[in-house]
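Quick start: read one record
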Amino acid sequence: MITRPNFDLAATKALEILIEKKITETPVDPMRILKDYPGVRIIPFTKMADEIEKEREDLVPMFYTNQDAATFHLSEKMDDISYIVVYNMRLPIEIIHRAIARELGHIVLGHNGTVRTPKVRMAEAMCFAHHLLSPRPVVNMLQKSGMPFTMNVMTATLGCSDECVDDLQMIPGVNVSPELNAKVRDLFAPHIKEYINFHKASPKKDKSPVLDLGTYMDNYEE
């Protein structure tokens, strides 16, 4: 039984997907990534309830504490589908995106069995989600831009809410190869530089809090 999360692996897998999918702009849309992932069907809670002829209110408790999204691994494929990801479409988009990214993490990291404890699976999936949607190479570019690294900047570039930043601050620094970080930086650099240049050319007083991401950027190398 694995009782310690492999945060390095989770972060590495997230960056590898950004490279594989050639994602170049933020906010990253995990829904688009998941829809293209083989063997996955994604569906809102409400539509799922209609398909299995249950009231939505009766369906939600089936998803335990994850009432934003959940993944079901099918023991036998149905129409080449191995995973069904169900999500709550009534939530704000930034919460939906974090939830979908987390469920993608469960799939990518192979969280199907009981090798890892539930706590380890959740920690790894959350780490994956944050590195997918708030890639450290992008954060590093913003921090080094010369403009204040504020909540408004995080929201505008990464679609990150206050709740997202609170969660992000709980993620420990990871060891990812400098080469991988550099590849992701190069993907996003034109888009982020455009934002930085626009921000500097049209300065507005930003009264939102300056951010400290805790340990998230520890061990970062390019």
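DSSP finds ten helices and three strands in the chain.
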